Known about the structure:
A: alpha/beta, Rossmann fold, five-stranded mixed β-sheet, B: Rossmann fold, 5 strands
Amino acid sequence: MQMDKKINVLIIGAGKGGKALIELFHKEPWLNICGIVDTNDDAPGIKLAKELGLPTGKDFSPFLKISGLNTVIEVTGNPEVEKSLSKMLPPGVELLKGASAKLIWTMIEEREKEIAELSNDRKAILNILEDVEEANKQLKETQAKLIQSDKMAAIGQLAGGIAHEINNPMGVILGFAQSVMKRIDQNNPLYLPLSSIEREALRCKTLVQNLLVFSRSSGTGKTSMEINQAVEETLLLVEHQAKMRNVVITKKYAPDLPMIFANRNQIQQVIMNLANNALDVMPDGGTITITTTLTIPSPLEGEENLSTVALAKVEGEGKFVEIRVEDTGAGIPEEVKHKIFEPFFTTKEPGKGTGLGLSLCYEIMQKHNGTIDFESEKGKGTTFTIKLPIIEEFTEKEKKKVLVVDDDRAIINLAIAFLKKFPEKYQFTSATDGFRAGQAVLEFNPDLMILDLLLPGIDGFQVCRNIRSNEKTKGIKILAITGYDSPENREKIFTAGANDYLSKPFEIEELGKRISKLLAE
Amino acid sequence: MKKILVVDDEQGIRDLFKFLLEPNGFEVFTANDGLEGIEMVKKDTFDIIFLDVHMPRMRGPEALKIIKQLRPTQVVVIFSSSSDPAFTFENKAKELGAYTCLYKPVDINEIFTIIEKSTVYQRGKD
Lengths: 521, 126
């Protein structure tokens, strides 16, 4: 661009307004700032001008003599300056002052607001993109699981079919071996081979039984059930054996445990398996202790106040029913600890264990969104712990009501995006101006209000004051949203009665933290 | 001499029952499927009938229904080829009139126990 086509501007007054003008103008190629004037060397605009290499000064007189000067913008707000300027202004040079300067000032404010909004929109879009990516990822995972589960179902059906088919010939093998054994004396040399056949056939029977657990289609037969009852029933079956082996069973059931959603049969199988394993490791007697309790995941360190948000980030958030099976056996050796959940891995002698038990337990716990784990110390014993998620019931009463007030839809959508992630915790509604906000407060009776202070009509500060002065509504928590973070603004906000504030632009996590914090107080 | 009827399409099972029970003073008759079994029930009386589920032409449960119609007090033990006691199966079987269920592969001691129990049961009924 040729020099003579540029518009040369002199800015008088380098306060916030002057600085803003510099920021605006120096980006425009058709504008040339030929000087910044302020009596104060430390004015923000002077500092910026020096950084940008623009000419500065304390007196405007020399600058007025610059040839080609088109416009002088006076933003000192000082009427004296205005007066002397008008006297000294060269002909043909335009002076923007007072009201015109105010216009520019307003334009600057609007521009900043636009930028802030765009920034928010951008953030909202980025958040949506993140959500879409996350959803995509989950879809892919679910797809993989479905394919796997399809395969498993197919394998399951196959396994079931084979199992049934095997039982018939196995019945014949077992039956004949036993029948012949009945007819001969124990000292008969044929007794050994026959008893071997009997033993191996029985082993096949157990194997088939275990295989059939896989063959039952996942998802059948899950019901709401009480865990203590199920454990007690299973133990009744074990107690007889326990007595014979000098094993004492100690039961510690927590009272009033919430119900779990599970397949009763499968859970009992897991308990049975663990109990039998415990029996097997104590051939000379010992104690099995069964404990049931309720566990709550602990909040992350240092975030006790943000329990809702932090807990939500814990995989499988919520409470669990925990069942511990503890034995006083020899313990699991270090070198095999990482193998024990592998299918067909067993520490028992050949013929004594199929090695399917723990891998089955693991499968079953996976299907129930639970966990199975163990602790073992050589010479002291082993404790297996299984955890199952409880059925959480959030009644309507426990949901917190949130009202989002902002004339900017993007902000409303941002807030709602957060609240929607926890449908069992939050109910929400929104309003786009002060008047509607007032109506919403009376009808919806929110626990928390997210309130933009720059509202059309009744402004946010007024809304805030109104809410605080009304007996019925004064307890509502208010999270104010503002475009400018400055000490004066903050004072204003808290004086009006807000509990907390957030300045734009903000991240969705930050919003979430503030919401949780305010509602927890 | 007690008369036992074994209805199963598996040769091995039929032979097994004969081998097991004949030396112990039982007369063992066999049928290859539900239809044959019913024919035999029509012509003769038995102390116990062992009935398999999966058979061609007519399955166990259907045969059970008809046998019970013909002989309401007949003791029928029904086999399940699943090795797990399944309450739904047992309930259904009892509903249809079975005395009890046996799960394959069967322990032969169980067979004797059931025969004994059912004899007492029969005596009680007569």
